Amino acid sequence: MEEAANKSEIIEKLKKEMLLMQGFSAVLDHERPDIGLGPMEKAFPNHIFPTAAVHEFVSAHAAAAAATTGFMAGLISHLMKTEGTCLWVGTGRQLFPPGLKAFGISPDRMIFIDLQRERDVLWAIEEGLKCSALTAVVAELKEISLTESRRLQLAVERSRVTGFLHRCNAKKTNHIASVSRWEISPIVSHLEAGVPGVGDPRWNVELQKIRNGKPGSWQLEWSAGRFTHLTTTATESTFIQQTG
User: Fold this and answer.
1) How confident is the model over 194-230, as pLDDT tens digits?
2) Which domains are assigned to the chain?
3) What is the three-state SS of the chain?
4) Alpha-carbon torsion 80, 35, 182, 203, what sign?
5) What CA–CA distance (Å, rounded) separates 24 from 148?
6) What is the pTM of this model?
7) At a CB cut-off of 8 Å and minimum separation 6, what does 186 contact?
């Protein structure tokens, strides 16, 4: 038993050393940012959502893109808290800024840049990621090469800004220098009996890739200003209630 315990300690120590070598420094409890993902954070290195990194989100159609925008807004809301500014860059913005209030974000804390060409989007996001005055930068684009993504990663390593690349209708999902890759899809919301309208947004969150972490899939809801985990049984019963 003692020998097994020693082996576990050695393995854990080696994991921490490897994370340090790759830029994932240990975080003290009082410095640990609360992104609100709860049990899902066990999938991340050091059990904490990687900030000062580039995250990739992929969407194959409009419904998935809308769901992804909502989920990213929830993450950004927790990153910004009561301070901070987010830069949002794209060529065909569909986002309705006042709708961000549902995720606790005041629109005046967002800077939107609408461009005509994707190569201009890449330039704008790189410059944004170099600006340490920003909390997060979001770029909506289709294609990005490995070399281009490496430049973004170098930028966040210096500025400590967190980047979100939302790739909508990409021709191919190629390997890029991001710490993670996500695919978000909407699931049926829940309505109280006799109450009309649309319920709180719900998503199936698939973490396809996470450097030094454990990929997985979760179902979440945004309600009362935070993420809430759903059980499969609860989601199935809701679906039956909505379609039955």
Assistant:
1) 666 678 999 999 999 999 999 999 999 999 899 999 9
2) 39-243 (3.40.50.300)
3) CHHHHHHHHHHHHHHHHHHHHCCCCCCCHHHCCCCCCHHHHHHCHHHCCCCCCEEEEEECCHHHHHHHHHHHHHHHHHHHCCCCCEEEEECCCCCCHHHHHHHCCCHHHEEEEECCCHHHHHHHHHHHHCCCCCCEEEEEECCCCHHHHHHHHHHHHHHCCEEEEEEECCCCCCCCCCCEEEEEEEECCCCCCCCCCCCCCEEEEEEEEECCCCCEEEEEEEECCEEEECCHHHHHHHHHHHHC
4) negative
5) 22
6) 0.82
7) 63, 64, 66, 67, 201, 202, 203, 204
Task: Give pLDDT tens digits for 84-130.
Answer: 999 999 998 888 889 999 999 998 999 999 999 988 999 999 999 99
Cβ proximity of 96 and 89 under 8 Å = no
Distances (CA, A) of 9 to 14, 21, 45: 9, 18, 17
Q: Is 86 exposed, middle or buried (0-12, 13-18, 19+ CB in 10 A)?
A: buried
